[in-house]
Amino acid sequence: MEVLSPYKEARDLVIETGGEPLKLCYQCGLCTGICPWNLVRSFVVRRIMHEAQLGATNFGSEDVWTCVTCRACVQRCPRGVEIIDVMRAIRRAVASLGLGVVPDALRISAKNIAGVGNPLGEAPEKRNDWAKDLKVKKFTSGTKILYFPCCVPSYDPDVKTVARATATILSKLGIDYGLIDTQTKCCGESIRKAGHEDIFQSLAQNNINLFTSNDVKTVVVSSPHCYHTFKNEYPELGGKFEVMHATQYLASLIENGKLKLSKDVKKKVIYSDPCYLGRHNSIYDEPRKVLQSIPGLELIEFPDAREEGLCCGGGGGRIWMDTPKGERFSDIRVEQAVRKGADIIAVACPYCFLNYRDSVLSMGKAETLQVKDVAELVAQAV
Amino acid sequence: MEEPRIGVYVCHCGTNIAGTVNVEEVAKYAETLPHVVVSRHYPYTCSDPGQDLIKNDIKELGVNRVVVASCSPRLHEKTFQGALREAGLNPYLFQMANIREHCSWLHESSPELTEKAKRMVRAAVNRVARHASLEIRGVPIFPATLVVGGGIAGITAALEIANSNHMVYLVEREPSIGGHMAQFDKTFPTLDCAACILTPKMTEVARHPFIRVLTYSEVVGISGYVGNFRVKIRRKPRYVDEGKCIGCLVCQEKCPWTALSEFDAGIRKRKAIYVPFAQAVPNIPVIDTEHCAYFLKGKCRACEKFCEANAINFEQSELIFELDVGNIIIATGFDTFDASSMSQYGYGRYPNVFTSIEFERLCSPTGPTEGHIILADGRQPDSVAIVHCVGSRDKNYHEYCSRVCCMHALKYSHLIKEKTNAEVYQMYIDMRCFGKSYEEFYDRIQKEGINFIRGKVAKITDEARSEEEKGKLIVIVEDTLLGTMLRVPVDMVILCVALEPRKDANEVAQLFHLGRSADGFFLERHPKLDPVATMSEGILIAGCCQGPKDIPDSVAQASAAAARALAMIARGKIEVPATTSSIDETKCSGCRICNLLCPYDAIFYDAEAKVSRINQVLCQGCGVCAAACPSGAITHNYFTADEIAAEIEGVLA
Predict the structure, then answer these.
(1) CB distance from B344 to chain A under 8 Å?
(2) E strand or H helix that includes residue B390
(3) B340 and B455 in contact (C-beta within 8 Å)?
(4) Under DSSP, is residue A236 helix (H, G, I), strand (E, B) or coil?
């Protein structure tokens, strides 16, 4: 029998970062019930909350790093417990107080972000190389829109197509936009969720200074993760600019008639709601409006869509970690897409792009199922 | 005015005051103040000997004004005023100096504290010298009572009052009285049949010489004040002549048009001309003009053809009339939460997901299945899951607990076991069995072999993952006691939906000037000590309209509201507090600023005389009008400018 002796510093840190609402948890278990992990293994979210309440968190457990921050639990919690903040707080305790071990893959990505400003460990000067032949200008004071593609489309050879498609559309319409100086760094959203608060603070400060000194007023992003942190977390640190996700911007251009889509894309397209557009920021309709404006495109829905959409498994820093086969949410999504007869899974997030691409390949579906970003489909229809 | 002879009494209040204030010094100081003829200090002035001190001084020393320096007037003003009254002195020739809550309880002991107490006493002495005798008046009241809502609470309140030989008007907007209780099958914890214990009361109400039942009627207007309300009632047309109808119900039989039955919670149809249920009181049908072919298209008239009593009257119009009542008891009940807004539970999508009230109708012998528990396709279920807290205890819907669901969930378990061989699962978070015999009921039901799974249900789906799940509804939930996820395949799901305020609670609240608590139910005057009164004198609330509760508590509240009403009826008059405001018409300019400011709607403008007047019964003496009047035409008794100025001078001198 153990004596209950709460580790007070840990409990206080968790409650301080995890928020007062943790005290309200009445252990109903809805979070466990709704968490996508329980489709593939056992992950008892409720128990982690109770351990945190008592200061009995097992900081050495692998489950510290399991949560993908998809927000399915927070959305339905009857007591308003900020479960994601609690997970982040526990990770912070491990990362900064050294109460446990940060998994290797995450450690490397953190090192890369801290060192060269992107998780892939690529050279900062090469950040805008994806746009080399597209003649995109550099953002300066007075440029109307900053296009911020996210580290993944900037550096990853496959996902580059998303940035290129978006830039092509914007250039074709004659929009006044530019790319920020390569001194910019990763937005920091995921590394913050992974508990590395110090790294996040320095990234944010760097970006806010850079954007402010360049008079950035409006940012269009390709990643819902960048969207989320720019919109919800940067303002209290001094970063005040208007943020739009590319699908929102495209929807507005279609609505005011500036963007006309005339070429057919005769495909059955199934749209996957990104957690950070949907549950985190309530953006469900604009991406669908954009897809429905593409001539010949048949839009179909996953059986669990919108607020109930299944996470691809990339949030919370897990995009940088390995998930064993049989536990991948994106595999389930691919199965669902195949059963619905889809030709293309439409994504609006670089992490979804990576995860679905990997799942399609590993499940041998590459002949019949493609993964495309909404921007890529729009570029085909312009 | 007579020469003031002031008695000052400084209380120790044990050590509460004496611990930090030098009460003897204060009493000694008071002796030096103008018009003070005696100044004493005493340990507990509110006690009998303490009050006797004051009474004796009034009798023996001719004290005609009293200052008590002690606690807050909210605590003992009435106590000391009582003492003055008993000694033959007008209770308003009295002032308290609060040297406890406003002095000794706020600071550490110091000489300045005693100085502060002295100032407060001087202020009170200054003021009380200017007090005038004020009279409490009585206003006669109407002895009749209006009860709004004919459910178990309304019925109980009506019978209690009527049995004292005083008139009650019972207004019910449905075609029959009975409320939600009439829809239930058996009731917990006794398993009494709801209809068996309710219908005798319904007939008693109908036959009672002192109750006038007004069904299919609504209150549409109210004016006046406590003891003197005038209410406007609208009697909706039944299109059936109540004097002629003999209740044979052939019209209902012959009517070819249908609609969803409200009484059967929408799971069965009724006719366009209908009585809501077989035991309806009165047993007189009503024509639903939104589904009747005559009213919609000018056709049919079958009911008229077959009615042997010639009771059908398509020309009947609504009747509006007024009633004078002294008290109003609101007993309008509750609505249930619409579970279709929780899409994860599949209500409205899967035919075998039922709400609690729908299940009551399935179980009831007067229901659509004559009491047989069957699925949508007619089979008996092999397994049933009962889901707790649907819409309750959930910040996304209603934060409160609906109080009755744990108990009715146990009841359903019993009824299912009694009528079928089904396996029963209860998905609960807590088991709230608080009432008399409730825990024992829980005991009894557990003995019947119910499966209890502690966890809030995450999802209900029909997507089978294995053979045993095919054709079933799968309840997905974490069993928090085991710490594992479960998929529970069942044939039927019952959702214990939250009790909510009625959909028109807003309109009713505005009509009767009722407050609403944060949860939307009607606001009681004090949550612990006054659950049936409201902020408006003469308007009482009882039953679920005040908050979710079971039948025993609804009945108890209804009896309490009846007692409160009867207390006023027995007194025959209400006392108007003397501290009201009045307008000097010679000074009133008719600007009407006071009309708009009065929070109690107590000020009226007399257009002929071009002055405003204050209703002395509605006035609660808040003083806002007196403060705002630009002509200084309003006197606020007990708070005149003179008196207040004297008090301020006493503090500042």
Answers:
(1) yes
(2) strand B383-390
(3) no
(4) helix
User: Is the pLDDT confidence value at A6 over 80?
Assistant: no
The residue to which tokens 């049908």 are assigned: B285
* Cβ atoms B128, B67 nearer than 8 A: yes
- Encode pLDDT of B504-549 as tens digits: 999 999 999 899 999 999 999 999 999 999 988 899 999 999 999 9
Q: Residue B196 class from Cβ within 10 Å (0-12 exposed, 13-18 middle, 19+ buried)?
A: exposed
Q: In which band, very low, low, confident or very high, does the pLDDT at B617 lie, cut at 50, 70 and 90?
A: confident
Residue A18's pLDDT is 65
- Quote ipTM for the complex: 0.90
Option in A28, A77, A308 nearest B429 (CB): A28
Q: Which residues contact B514 (CB under 8 A, 6 or more apart)?
A: B330, B508, B522, B523, B534, B536, B539, B541
CB contact under 8 A, B479 and A29: yes
Question: Residue A65 corresponds to which tokens in the numbers above?
Answer: 């790093």
- Residues B110-168 have pLDDT tens digits of 889 999 999 999 999 999 999 999 988 888 999 999 999 999 999 999 999 999 999 99
Q: What is the mean pLDDT of residues A340-351?
A: 98
Q: What residues are paired with B3 via a beta bridge?
A: none
Which H or E run contains B235?
strand B228-235
- Sorted by sequence, the CB contacts under 8 Å of residue B284 that are 6+ apart come out as B175, B238, B240, B242, B245, B247, B275
Instruction: State whether A38 and B389 contact (CB < 8 Å).
Output: no
Q: CA dihedral defined by B249, B250, B251, B257, rounded to 10 degrees?
A: 100
Residues of chain A with C-beta less than 8 angstroms from the C-beta of B465: none
Helices H / strands E in chain B, number of each: 17, 34
Do A44 and B483 make contact, defined as CB atoms within 8 angstroms? yes
Q: What is the pLDDT of residues A213-242, one digit of tens each?
A: 999 999 999 999 999 999 999 999 999 999
CB A278 within 8 A of CB A289: no
B528 residue type, one letter: K
pLDDT, one tens digit per residue, over B167-193 is 999 999 999 999 999 999 999 999 999
Strand partners, B636: B581
Q: Which residues of A touch B (CB under 8 A)?
A: 26-30, 32-34, 38, 42, 44, 46-47, 76-80, 303, 308
Instruction: Kindly determine whether residue B395 and residue A26, on different chains, have CB atoms separated by under 8 Å.
Output: no
Interface size between A and B, measured as CB pairs under 8 A: 62
Question: Tokens 């056709």 belong to which residue?
Answer: B299
Omega before B282 within 30 of 0, i.e. cis: yes
Distance, CA of A92 to CA of A97 (rounded, Å): 8
Closest chain B C-alpha to A26 CA, distance in angstroms? 9
Nearest chain A residue (CA) to B342: A76
Question: What's at B327, amino acid-wise?
Answer: N
Task: Name residue, tokens 């309200």.
Answer: A24
As a whole number of angstroms, the distance between CA B63 and CA B129 comes to: 12
B253 contacts: CB under 8 Å, gap ≥ 6: none
Find, in chain A, the residue whose alpha carbon is nearest to that of B394.
A78
Q: How far apart, in whole angstroms, are the C-alpha atoms of residue A272 and residue A292?
A: 14
CA A103 to chain CA centroid, Å, is 20
Supply A62's token pair.
């692998």
Write down the pLDDT at residue A10. Answer: 73
The pair of three-digit structure tokens given for residue B53, joined into one six-digit string: 């001190």
How many CB atoms lie under 10 A from the CB of residue A248? 22
User: Scanning the structure block, which residue is given the tokens 């301020």?
Assistant: B648
B455 touches chain A (CB under 8 A): yes
Confidence of residue A7 (pLDDT cuts 50, 70, 90): confident
DSSP states of B183-199: G-SEETTTTEEHHHHHH
Chain B hits for A44, Cβ within 8 Å: 478, 483-484
Q: Please give the model's pTM, rounded to 2 decimal places.
A: 0.86
Which of B476, B485, B487 would you mutate first to test chain A, the one with the most A CBs within 10 A? B485
